[in-house]
Amino acid sequence: MSDDFLNWIDEGTIAFPEGEGPQPLAQFYVNQIKPYYRAPHLCIGFPARYVDHGLTTSTELLPEWKLREKRMTVTPRYGTAVTDSVYITSRDGRNFRQSNDVFLPPGLRTKHNWSYGDNYIAWHVVETKSTKDDAPHELSLYATESYFTGRQSRLRRYSLRLDGFASIHARLHKGEFTTRPITFSGKELSLNVATSAAGSVLVEIRSPDGTPIPGFTLADGDIIYGDSLDRRISWKNNRSVESLIGQPVVLRFVMREADVYSLVFE
Predict the structure, then answer these.
(1) β-bridge partners, 50
(2) What pLDDT digit, counting tens, does each position of 38-81 carry?
């Protein structure tokens, strides 16, 4: 860290659990770590992931093979290395978790991708208007492509829903999960949630020992379906959770064909 680019403080290295983060075959570059503006207590980042499988039978099937051969006369990795981007999060800026799946894959073959230097996400996310008529705002990300083709590279815009970096996902067969104990100060529970037409979500509030709290049980819960950034949850048409403010609770979600992206007590 530096305030003047002359005097520097070594803040140490960031850490990942075993099996996450940079690996021998997958190095991280330009981590792009920054507090998320909608939840400043969370740091998020989009490292570019550098992978070099070497010269294999697949290398010759990647786009622009003749151009790759020319690049390899400078150094082999200019023709064999490929890059994509992943998603990492932290609450303290030092200890990070990596999402299970690639965040921005190279995509279908074109002359502009599957090269070293592609899919580097530019400085973080930007909230923008949606291109759809009455849709809410979305997040835009800008990533490099065509790094080694032509005389200049370029940025392509990608978009996702607000807070839509990752989700708890349920398929057709019903699934469920519970949160860690939560202490909150808001009066209503809001979900960023999306379901299919046949999908649904039910929420139960429990005490930390797992006992359902009367009035907030699964049987009391009103069924949730649809697609919303701010779906207020209710139990027998009651949305108020004010009686539980300040006491630890656990949320149980029972889901089918649904994604829960985030939750907040408002």
Answers:
(1) 27, 83
(2) 999 999 999 999 999 999 999 999 998 999 999 999 999 999 99
Amino acid letter at 225? Y
Cα dihedral 139, 140, 143, 145, rounded to 10, equals 130
Q: Which residues pair with 140 in a beta bridge?
A: 126, 159
How buried is 176 (Cβ within 10 angstroms: 0-12 exposed, 13-18 middle, 19+ buried)? Answer: middle
DSSP lists the bridge partners of residue 136 as none
Q: How far apart are CA 110 and CA 152, in angstroms?
A: 16
Please name the residue that has the structure tokens 């949320």.
251
Residue-wise pLDDT tens digits, 104-152: 999 998 888 899 999 999 989 999 999 888 899 999 999 999 988 778 8
Q: Using DSSP, how many helices (H) and how many strands (E) does the chain show?
A: 2, 15
H-helix or E-strand containing 155?
strand 154-161
Which tens digit of pLDDT belongs to each residue from 12-39? 889 999 999 999 999 999 999 999 999 9
Burial of 31 (0-12, 13-18, 19+ CB in 10 A): middle
- Give the 3-state secondary structure of residue 151: coil
Confirm if 77 and 124 have CB atoms less than 8 A apart: no
The C-alpha R_g of the chain, in whole angstroms, comes to: 22
Decide: pTM greater than 0.85.
yes
Query: Closest Cα partner for 147 from 125, 124, 102, 114?
Result: 114
What tokens appear for 216 in the block?
A: 């907030």
Q: Which of these, 110, 117, 181, lies nearest to 148 by C-alpha position?
A: 117
